[in-house]
Each structure stands twice: as structure tokens, then as C-alpha cells.
Design goal:
Layout (H helix, E strand, L loop, with lengths): L4 E8 L5 H17 L3 E4 L6 H9 L2 E4 L11 E3 L7 H8 L4 E3 L3 H15 L3 E5 L5 H7 L7 E4 L2 H6 L8 E5 L5 H14 L13 H13 L5 E5 L5 H12 L5 E4 L15 E6 L5 H12 L3 E8 L11 H5 L6 H4 L1
Parallel strand pairs: 1-11, 1-12, 2-3, 2-4, 4-5, 6-7, 6-8, 9-10, 9-11
Helix pairs in contact: 8-9
Bound molecules: (3E)-4-hydroxybut-3-en-1-yl trihydrogen diphosphate and iron/sulfur cluster (SF4).
The site of (3E)-4-hydroxybut-3-en-1-yl trihydrogen diphosphate has 18 residues, from helix 1 and helix 9.
């Protein structure tokens, strides 16, 4: 039987960013250096496939530090943690490694600087997301107020409208955030902001790449997890830029191929936490059903890399409780 032709248009850049690459490497190198088990607080990045691959090598994922036994090494996820977390680790004498992306840490330091200069911080982000919890947790209660939408800007209560600064989550929609910032500036003309926005290069580039392919494809698959903020934003961006049939898929087995019948050009991209092997898996699954031609549309080149923490490379191996006994 002859297969129907299907053109796959790959967005580029897509997939892993420098912060995710670094975070995963931190877990892998820690497993090599210290041997399993190495504990990780929260999913190192929001991807089940990544988490399961690291679990297979001996990583143990926990929600809270209290689940980490004394003497075991623990790693904090790429999304960042409130200051109370390393403080609790220190009180317990735990050996910890912080895999917070340096671009998230930069937002933490900016928020701290504004606070030290007497400003209250208006954080633009999604309530309950670990990065938001981490950024709010850099400062005392009340020092940071959260807004999620333009509507929130109209009602947010601040201590002094003349002493404010805004900061954002790194993985937001560039366009939606611009609207929220404009609303903040209209209501609070004196509000200070970052020199260059807090949305990171990877989020920006992946959204730009989706904008370029969305009008050219009949459907778009975004590889990513339901709890991955940056991946979910890619689906929204596609929908507002000409591709209403955009959906998030975790891997090839999630795809309803029957629903894609009649599609001649299929777009594929991947969130910053989704490994390229998952994109390859989708292409292989498509090849089994269609006569596939793959093209790539690149809108930016990325060459950013982040160094691994010094403590990982030359820190003392943690003294494990079982070895002490
Ligand atoms: O939910 P997020 O997009 O913040 O995280 P994810 O999917 O793990 O992506 C990589 C980590 C991003 C941190 O900024
Ligand atoms: Fe860092 Fe951006 Fe990647 Fe988040 S998405 S880990 S901020 S580079």
C-alpha cells in the first residue's frame, strides 16, 4: 500500500536549553562521583522521560527535603528553590547541589537588590509554579506580590506605588507578558524593571520559532509535559499565530494519528525540558504511517552553555550515614 505524503516541519531552536542541560548533567555527574542513591528535590526538569532515565541510573526524586535521609547528597531542581530550602539542608548538614538555572538565579538576585533598595516586587508569573515559589521565597513574606494577568494588575494591592519593581518568571509568553508589563507601567508609572526582560533566551527563541512555522502547518505537536510552563506557552503561541490545531504531547504513543488524517504539513517542536530523542521517536512513528519528508525552519542559533557548580567538580564526597555507622 502506498503511503500518503506528509511534510514534517521542525521548529528550530527547540528542546533542551542550557539550563536544562546543566541541571541534568549535575545529576549525572553527581551519580558518577558519589554513586547512587542521589536525591533530587522536585523533578529536575519537568519531563517524565528525563526523570525516569535518571531514576534508572540511581536518582531518587522527592517532593520535600524531609524525605532525604541524613548523609545523602541532594540536588535542587532547575526551577529554583526558596531560601528556606538550602537553609534547612545546611541545618541538617546535608551535602546539596543547586541545579537552579543561572538565569533563574539572576532573577532571584535582581529581586533581592530591589528589596534592599526599598522596593516591593511585583512578580509576573503562575501561582503555584515551583519557579514562582522559589522567587517569592527569596524574600520575606509580603515583599513580593504576584500578578498572573492584566486583570490582576488592576486590583493588586501594593504598599507604596512609588517604590515598586517588577520581575517575571523566565518561561512566560513574551507577548502576554508585554501586555502585563504595559498595564503595570500604566498603573504605576514609577515602577522599575529589569534592563533586559527576565523571560530567558530559550523561551523567547522557542516562541519565535513557533511563530514562524505556525502559519505554514495544518497541525503542530509540542513535545512537553503538562506541568512544563514553557512547553504549554508554545501551544498557546501556535494557536494565536495561525495554527489552531496545536497540542502538547508527552511522546509518540500519545498521538492520535487518526485525528491527523488529511494533514499534509505537520509542525513539530519541543519545550526546553523535552529531549530530542522524543522528537526522533515521533518522526519514526510518522514514518511508519506516512511517506515523510522532514524540513527544518530555524529562526535563531544558540550557543549558550553554563558551567557546572564548583562544589560538584571538586567538592568533598558527602559522608553517607550508612558509612558513618
Ligand atoms: O515549567 P517550566 O517551563 O518552568 O520548566 P521545565 O519544563 O522543567 O523547563 C526547564 C526548566 C526551566 C526553568 O526556567
Ligand atoms: Fe534557564 Fe531558560 Fe532553560 Fe529555564 S528555560 S532552565 S531559565 S535557560
Amino acid at each position: 500500500m502506498t503511503k500518503t505524503p506528509l511534510t514534517i516541519l521542525l521548529a528550530a531552536p527547540r528542546g533542551f536549553c542550557a539550563g536544562v542541560d546543566r541541571a541534568i548533567q549535575i545529576v549525572e555527574v553527581a551519580l558518577e562521583r558519589f554513586g547512587p542513591p542521589v536525591y533530587v528535590r522536585h523533578e529536575i526538569v519537568h519531563n517524565r522521560f528525563v526523570v525516569q532515565s535518571l531514576e534508572a541510573k540511581g536518582a531518587v526524586f522527592v517532593d520535600e527535603l524531609t524525605e532525604v535521609p541524613d548523609g545523602a547528597p541532594v540536588i535542587f531542581s532547575a526551577h529554583g528553590v526558596p531560601k528556606s530550602v538550602p537553609a534547612a539542608a545546611e541545618r541538617r548538614g546535608l551535602f546539596y547541589l543547586d541545579a537552579t538555572c543561572p538565569l533563574v538565579s539572576k532573577v532571584h538576585r535582581e529581586a533581592e537588590r530591589h528589596f534592599n533598595e526599598g522596593r516591593q516586587i511585583v512578580l509576573i508569573g503562575h501561582a503555584g509554579h515551583p519557579e514562582v515559589i522559589g522567587t517569592m521565597g527569596q524574600l520575606p513574606e509580603g515583599a513580593v506580590v504576584l500578578v498572573e494577568t492584566v486583570a490582576d494588575v488592576a486590583t493588586v494591592q501594593v504598599a507604596d506605588p512609588d517604590n515598586l519593581a517588577y520581575a517575571t518568571q523566565t518561561t512566560l509568553s513574551v507577548d502576554e507578558t508585554a501586555g502585563i508589563v504595559a498595564a503595570l507601567q500604566a498603573r504605576f508609572p514609577a515602577i522599575a524593571g529589569p534592563k533586559k526582560e527576565d523571560i530567558c533566551y530559550a523561551t523567547t527563541n522557542r516562541q519565535q520559532a513557533v511563530k514562524a512555522i505556525a502559519p505554514k502547518v495544518e497541525a503542530l505537536l509540542v513535545l512537553g509535559a503538562p506541568n512544563s510552563s514553557n512547553s504549554k506557552r508554545l501551544v498557546e503561541v501556535a494557536k494565536t499565530h495561525g495554527c489552531t490545531r496545536a497540542q502538547l504531547v508527552q511522546r509518540a504513543t500519545d498521538i492520535d494519528w487518526a485525528a491527523l488524517e488529511g494533514v499534509g504539513t505537520l509542525g513539530i517542536t519541543a519545550g526546553a525540558s523535552a529531549p530530542e530523542v522524543l522528537v526522533e521517536e515521533v518522526i519514526a512513528a510518522a514514518r511508519a504511517r506516512f511517506d515523510v519528508t522532514v524540513e527544518e525552519l530555524r529562526t535563531a542559533f544558540e550557543d549558550i552553555t553554563f558551567k557546572l557548580p564548583k562544589a560538584l567538580l571538586d567538592g568533598e564526597a558527602p559522608l553517607r550515614a550508612k558509612e558513618e555507622a
